[in-house]
Write a structure and sequence with these properties.
Blueprint: E1 27-31, H1 33-38, H2 48-60, E2 65-69, H3 73-85, E3 89-93, H4 97-101, H5 107-117, E4 122-131, H6 140-157, E5 160-166, H7 169-179, E6 185-188, H8 194-202, E7 206-209, H9 219-227, E8 233-235, H10 257-268, H11 272-287
Parallel strand pairs: 1-2, 2-3, 3-4, 4-5, 5-6, 6-7, 7-8
Helix pairs in contact: 3-5, 5-6, 8-9
Bound molecules: zinc ion (ZN) (2 copies).
Length: 296
């Protein structure tokens, strides 16, 4: 998601309590800690101590590895800086498809994303892709041009691509097939059905499931997760959005990802410890090692 896409309805009420810790370390493959802590203000950077407390709360429930995702130039810089100073965090950098659709993926912005993508703890370009829900047809050409530019940046630096796909499944595959997908391509907040999951799996892409997996109405999503090989699965919060059941509608945070990991274990029939190990292995294959030994 992006700030401009954000609804305050996602953040009603008190942050939910932390769940029971996972039996083995897992990963939040997609978070926006800056938005979690800033309440959507873009003018003031989040306070380091508050950010560190949020990261420690995630580690305390078995989530010592996070990927902080940028949505524009300032938040991408912030993600890169956080990853450089905190061992538990790697960064992804991009201009979000809705920002691109609004004309914010100009050449100078893309040049800055390209510069950031070369940094050692920036391990993905994203979130990029297509959003046909928030962006109207007048922004689609700019959105696709930006998506193509981001794919090229990811390949140039040999880092993963993190895709935002909103109501654009077939179009995303068309662009990916046309450009040639990077070796590691992740569909963040996977939102397709079994047929689309199969198309992604066959291409070797990784499907990252968010709190939406726990929603009562998400039968098609659970079918998609069930057919995905365990080594092509990731789990994420997309916090502060998409809070899992039973806290839907309240603010999300990385420390709540165990709810989604447990739901994924149930859906796939993979035993919880084995699933946690697989999620960590897949995250390190896609994003590279967190290197400095995250605190568990
Ligand atoms: Zn997104
Ligand atoms: Zn996001």
């Amino acid at each position: 998601m992006s700030r401009s896409a954000a609804s305050r309805a996602d953040r009603r009420g008190e942050p939910p309590p932390s769940p029971e810790p996972l039996p083995a370390p897992a990963v939040d493959s997609h978070t926006h800690l800056d938005i979690v802590l800033d309440g959507f203000r873009t003018d003031e950077p989040a306070d380091d101590a508050a950010v560190d407390a949020e990261i420690a709360a995630a580690a305390a429930v078995g989530v010592p590895r996070l990927v902080q995702v940028g949505v524009d130039v300032p938040s991408s810089r912030w993600a890169a800086e956080l990853a450089a100073r905190h061992p538990n965090v790697l960064a992804a950098v991009a201009v979000h498809p809705n920002e691109a659709g609004a004309g914010l993926a100009a050449d100078d912005a893309l040049a800055e994303i390209d510069r950031l993508a070369a940094l050692p703890r920036v391990r993905a370009v994203g979130e990029t892709g297509l959003d046909r829900f928030r962006t109207g047809p007048e922004g689609w050409a700019a959105q696709e041009a930006s998506f193509r530019a981001h794919i090229r940046i990811a390949k140039e630096h040999g880092v993963a691509l993190v895709i935002h796909d909103r109501d654009a499944h077939e179009e995303i595959l068309r662009v990916l097939d046309d450009e040639g997908a990077p070796e590691h391509t992740v569909f963040h907040c996977f939102s397709g059905d079994a047929g689309f999951a199969q198309a992604c799996v066959e291409r070797g892409h990784v499907l990252s499931f968010a709190g939406t997996l726990t929603f009562g109405s998400a039968g098609a999503l659970r079918e998609a997760a069930a057919l995905t090989p365990v080594d092509q699965l990731l789990v994420e919060t997309d916090s502060p959005f998409l809070t899992p059941v039973p806290y839907r509608g309240r603010p999300n945070a990385s420390r709540l990802v165990p709810h989604t990991v447990r739901a994924l274990a149930e859906v796939t029939g993979v035993e919880l410890v084995r699933l946690c190990d697989a999620l960590t292995r897949t995250a390190e294959r896609v994003f590279g090692p967190w290197d400095r030994g995250p605190t568990a």
